[in-house]
Structure formats: structure tokens, C-alpha cells
Amino acid sequence: MVEVSEIRLSSKFFPGSQGSLVYFGGRGGGRIKIVAGPVLAPPNEPLHVDLDAWQARVRLMVKPRRFEHVLRVAHLAADIAAANGVDVPRAFAAGVLHDVARDLPDSELLRLATPECAIDAAHPLALHGRAGRVLLERWGFTDRVVLEAVEDHTTGPRPGNLVSACVYIADVSEPGRGVNADIRELALSDLDGALKRSIGSKVRYLCGRGIEVHPRTMATFQALGLQE
């Protein structure tokens, strides 16, 4: 078990990104350092995790194309975190872990996460964030900030968890999706603005078509001070 000591940012998926390497503890002397990018203060509690082992476990849980998406989300979440002074190692780790339950069958999702509303019951895929958190906790992952980011990436981040905001935005805007480039670009300078645009456009789109909005998403929408 080691601290996150080296994370490669965007060298493959985002050429020319402002951050290329992150060091946390170990060779970095207990600091976070982003080469060719801003230097961030370390979080209050270091993230102790064998990221290679967790990444290998995720690879076994998802389809190959899903794993490519996972890596793009992790790198983009780290880039967004770096640009906004948010905890980079946790953003990267949460990106790696966010879809760990995404390819489970509906029956398994329902077993892991009890539906909270009619949307969950009718569309069990909406449960894969909560189910992912349950799996990670059962496997011994204990970092609350990362677990919340995994749980909330399907419906929207809870207030105060900026790592969760980075992962949510990265998930909806990573380049492989081919959409939301404006949100991705905005997030690199204005995390709050990007989150409001992302959540706001989703809720207004659904409401405009008479589609029920998940209660958790609506709670995030209201917490951000947005209006339909």
C-alpha cells in the first residue's frame, strides 16, 4: 500500500494539457507537483491507495470500450481538479473507479442498491453509482470523498464535494462522448459555472419534454440555486 506517488495526466488522451505528471508523497517529497502546470497545496489527509491494483480490478469489471472511457474520465477529472485547485489524486482515483458497477446486470444493481424512487426501479442503470460505492466499500475502499464521487456521478454531486463535481463534469464531457465540449472547456477555468451549465441543461431538457427528473439530480439543481 503506497500513497499516490505518480499519475500521468493526459499524455495519451489529452495532448498538450497543462499538467503532465503529479507527484504526491514519495519521490515528490510530500507535495503535489504538476509539471508544466500549477502547484497545488496537498489535501488535509493524503490518499493512501494502491491505484494500480484498483485500476486492474476496474478493468476486469467493465467492457474494454468502457475502460477506455474510464481512463479518459480519470485524466480529464484530474485536469479539471488541477485547474481549479481541487484534490488531484482523489479526482483521478474517483475517475478510475466511477464506473466499476456500470456493466453489471440489472438484477445485480438492484441487489446492491435498493431503488429510492420510481426512476431507479424502472431504470436500474441509474443505480450503478450507488452500487459502485457499495462494491468498493465491500472491497475495503474507505476514502469518503472518493466514494461520494463514485456514488453521485450518475445524478449530480452533493454540495461541498468538489472532487465529485470534477468527476461528474468529466463523465459528461470527456472527448470520447463527442458532446459538451463547451462544458469541458469551461470547467478548466470555472468549475462552478460548468457544473451549473451541466446540471441546468440536463434538468431543463428533461422537464421541457415532460420526463421525470431523478430526485437527487433535482436536489443538486436546487442546491446550485438554479431555476427551471
Task: Please give a structural write-up.
Pfam families: HD. The chain is mainly alpha-helical and 228 residues long. Strand 2 (21-24) and strand 3 form a beta hairpin. It has one domain: Orthogonal Bundle (Hypothetical protein af1432). The termini are far apart. The protein has helices at residues 51-61, 64-84, 88-97, 106-112, 118-122, 128-138, 144-152, 162-173, 181-187, 191-208, 215-223, and strands spanning 7-8, 21-24, 32-34.
Order of helices and strands: EEEHHHHHHHHHHH
* DSSP strand count: 3
Please name the fourth-level CATH homologous superfamily.
Answer: Hypothetical protein af1432
Radius of gyration: 17 Å
CATH topology term: Hypothetical protein af1432
What's the shape? Answer: globular
CATH domain class: Mainly Alpha
CATH architecture: Orthogonal Bundle
Physical arrangement of strands within the biggest beta sheet: 1-2-3
Q: Which stretches are poorly predicted, pLDDT < 50 over at least 5 residues?
A: 1-43
- Overall pLDDT level: 84
Domain HD: 66-176
EC number: 3.6.1.41
Protein name: bis(5'-nucleosyl)-tetraphosphatase (symmetrical)
Catalytic activity: P(1),P(4)-bis(5'-adenosyl) tetraphosphate + H2O = 2 ADP + 2 H(+)
Helix and strand arrangement:
Layout (H helix, E strand, L loop, with lengths): L6 E2 L12 E4 L7 E3 L16 H11 L2 H21 L3 H10 L8 H7 L5 H5 L5 H11 L5 H9 L9 H12 L7 H7 L3 H18 L6 H9 L5
Antiparallel strand pairs: 1-2, 2-3
